[in-house]
Design goal:
The complex is a heterodimer of chains A (355) and B (321).
Chain A (H helix, E strand, L loop, with lengths): L1 H6 L3 H23 L4 H14 L1 H26 L7 H18 L5 H30 L3 H23 L19 H6 L8 H18 L1 H11 L1 H6 L4 H27 L12 H11 L4 H25 L4 H15 L1 H17 L1
Helix pairs in contact in A: 2-15, 3-4, 3-14, 4-9, 4-12, 4-13, 4-14, 5-6, 5-7, 5-12, 5-13, 6-7, 6-12, 9-10, 9-12, 9-14, 10-12, 13-14, 13-15, 14-15
Chain B lengths: L2 H31 L7 H22 L5 H26 L4 H23 L27 H5 L5 H19 L1 H11 L1 H6 L4 H28 L10 H11 L4 H20 L11 H17 L21
Helix pairs in contact in B: 1-6, 1-9, 1-10, 1-11, 2-3, 2-4, 2-9, 2-10, 3-4, 3-9, 6-7, 6-11, 7-9, 10-11, 10-12, 11-12
Classes of the chains: A mainly alpha (355), B mainly alpha (321).
Chain lengths: 355, 321
């Protein structure tokens, strides 16, 4: 059976699937070692997410920024760039979208909502453009520069909130209704969850990424640079410009993720003592989703399920919610170690052949 | 307030904040000089801080008294070293992308440590505060030297001097011993090192392991001199700041140490600037982001060029050209 899988079209799905199964399995072992009940824990996660509308709504709500930051990481990956600056681009997008909404209070919804979303996207794009420029012009490795940009974004947004948009409760004022993505209907449907219209934005963004990368000449160039910058350059493509463009698009997706939090989930931005972590989860989402739009949605759904259901797991099975982070980290390790998983699979397949 | 008074406040504060950064940045130098990118420093510090909090607490209960924080530094070093082996196995043997592995290491560290805190302390989100810290002391004799005494030898924790001494030691090890030459060679040109009979994998494992040991000590020093207890927020950014210090110091031990001191200076200024005339006018955000902006400028070549080791981040596959 393994053999049939190995040769078939489903082969690329093997590593992510095995990683998820093994990740959950090791998670269960850790729970056993800690004296918890793994089956009860996993059961409580899935029961709450699939049977209780409130948790279903919250899961989709959690998915929105996760998918967008997953798309951000995946888009850059396709051009061979590792954007771990999604976190900072997200904060930039979050802040600017909220600030735009508050500053332009009084505008009609048909103008203010798109403006606020686009402002967030633009802020993220600029925050991604800077490391892109440093890479294209000065060959600065994007991993280091995006980490630096993350902290600059964290401290700068906190400072700006504290000094220019501050209200009680360590946060900005609430955005005007005209800029809000929140929906009474959606919330009512899911028994009071914070589900908002942002899921449409996430869907459109997924389509946009697929369209750019696979249906346009520019996308072909972006991927060519990802496969081999030297070959792409030799073929006459402008490598620097493609790097710049890729980081800008990537930052734009991340900025949208931030805008969804600002305009949808919270309706404001708080002073963050540390990173919110969505950007780092985005790396896991992109890796598990094999850097495709569809994969990012599936991986985003899985992680959103775990994170939302983790709350019920903590209250009902008594397992600390940190277990979810452990499982996600294990899945990243496993997906990253695809070389060894494939090696083991090949050995197993060969043994099958001999028989 | 005279300039001397200002220095008397800033320099001891700098030495205190810099020590964890110096240890961790030195660890980063070991790893990256051997050719393994380590953005998991943050997680290694978290493991070190957690281990120090828990072991100090238990040692105190066993009656180890004032020796407990010192002993727990050693235990944290071992824990950091062990934890870093995950990164080593995944990125050296399993050839995973080193950045991916580092990201996962950070996530795993926070998850595991807080999970264990809740397990050990009946669901509490943080460890109890330790009773014995490594305190700030006046160094006997030296602190009464006029001018430099109060500046350099008063109200400083011993760990700060140890950090500087170890910085010099690491420099000597990397640049004056055969071991250091081998470690650096596998980070520059592993294939050439391999043909000369150096075991590339072994050297890289050692590099990563040492980064874990030093990162663990860095986190532990932060805990026993500054934080006092461990929770999910204890280590938030110090590891990445140490990473920045390593890059700002151009992957060189002395540079990393200098950058650690400099970033410690910026951090302590952002805290103490309220007491200092003129500086209290400056928005604290400038001081907070200064280390990161400066590191970007160094990387871009505006403030002297920083070049990573040639093979940094590239998995070594034997026989591949």
């Amino acid at each position: 059976m393994i053999q049939r899988f190995m040769n078939g079209k489903l082969y690329p799905l093997f590593v992510p699937l095995i990683s998820v199964v093994l990740g959950l399995f090791f998670g269960a072992l850790i729970m056993l070692a800690g004296g918890y009940h793994p089956i009860l824990a996993y059961q409580s996660i899935f029961e709450s997410v699939f049977l209780q509308p409130y948790y279903t709504g919250e899961t989709i709500r959690t998915m929105i920024p996760l998918v967008l930051s997953g798309l951000a990481v995946a888009f850059a990956f396709r051009t061979g760039l590792f954007n771990i600056g999604v976190e900072g681009q997200l904060l930039a997008g979050w802040f600017v979208s909220v600030a735009a909404a508050i500053l332009c209070d009084g505008w009609p919804k048909i103008l203010l909502l798109p403006l606020s979303i686009l402002a967030g996207a633009a802020a993220g794009a600029v925050w991604g453009l800077i490391p892109g420029f440093l890479k294209a012009r000065f060959k600065v490795h994007e991993v280091i520069s995006t980490i630096m940009m993350n902290y600059i974004a964290l401290y700068t947004t906190n400072y700006l909130i504290k000094h220019y948009l501050y209200t009680e409760g360590e946060r900005t004022p609430t955005i005007p209704d005209a800029a809000s993505l929140a929906s009474a209907t959606l919330s009512h449907l899911t028994q009071g969850s914070r589900l908002h219209w942002g899921f449409i934005v996430a869907l459109l963004a997924g389509l946009l990424m697929w369209f750019i990368l696979w249906q346009t000449t520019r996308g072909y160039e972006l991927r060519a640079v990802g496969f081999s910058p030297d070959a792409a350059g030799y073929a006459g493509m402008n490598v620097g410009r493609n790097i710049l463009l890729s980081m800008t698009f990537s930052g734009m997706f991340a900025g949208l993720a931030g805008a969804m939090e600002g305009l949808g989930t919270y309706q404001y931005m708080m002073i963050n003592p540390a990173f919110v972590g969505i950007g780092f989860s985005g790396i896991a989402v992109a890796l598990l989703g094999m850097n495709t739009s569809l994969g990012v949605f599936l991986a985003g759904a899985l992680f959103a399920t775990l994170q939302t259901g983790g709350l019920t797991m903590q209250s009902e099975a008594g397992v600390p919610i940190e277990l979810i982070n452990i499982v996600i980290a294990l899945i990243i390790f496993l997906v990253g170690s695809s070389y060894i998983i494939q090696l083991v699979l090949n050995r197993l397949a060969k043994r099958g052949e001999k028989r | 307030m005279s300039l001397l008074d200002v220095l008397d406040i800033i320099i001891p504060a700098t030495l205190l904040t810099a020590a964890p950064l110096i240890f961790t940045a030195l660890g980063g130098v070991f790893s990256e000089r051997s050719g393994v990118v380590n953005i998991g420093l943050e997680g290694l510090m978290a493991v070190g801080a957690f281990t120090a909090a828990v072991s100090t607490y238990f040692l105190e209960n066993l009656g180890a008294g004032a020796a407990s924080p010192w002993l727990s530094l050693l235990i944290a070093a071992a824990a950091g070293g062990l934890f870093s082996l995950i990164h080593a196995v995944v990125s050296i043997s399993f050839r995973a992308d080193q950045t991916v592995s580092g990201v996962a290491l950070n996530l795993l560290a926070v998850g595991v440590t807080v999970f264990l805190v809740k397990l050990f302390f009946e669901g509490a989100g943080q460890t109890p505060f330790i009773k014995h810290r490594i305190d700030k002391v006046d160094i006997p004799g030296l602190h009464s030297i006029p001018v430099i005494g109060p500046m350099l030898f008063s109200q400083v924790a011993w760990t700060s001097y140890i950090a500087i001494a170890i910085g010099l030691m690491v420099w000597a090890i990397l640049y004056k011993t055969p071991f250091g030459l081998r470690l650096r060679s596998v980070g520059e040109h592993p294939a050439a090192a391999d043909t000369l009979g150096i075991n590339v994998y072994k050297m890289r494992y050692i590099g990563v392991f040492l980064s874990g040991v030093f990162g663990g000590i860095g986190g532990a020093v932060y805990l026993v001199t500054i934080a006092g207890n461990y929770n999910a927020m204890t280590i938030s950014g110090q590891g990445f700041l140490a990473l920045a210090a390593m890059v700002f110091g151009k992957w060189h031990p002395a540079g990393a140490m200098g950058a650690g001191l400099f970033f410690g200076f910026a951090q302590s200024l952002s805290i103490t600037s309220q007491q200092i005339p003129l500086l209290d006018q400056l928005p604290d955000v400038i001081l907070l982001i200064a280390p990161y902006v400066l590191t970007l400028l160094v990387l871009a070549g505006f403030v002297g060029r920083a070049e990573a080791p040639k093979a940094d981040g590239v998995p070594y596959i034997k026989g591949q050209r």
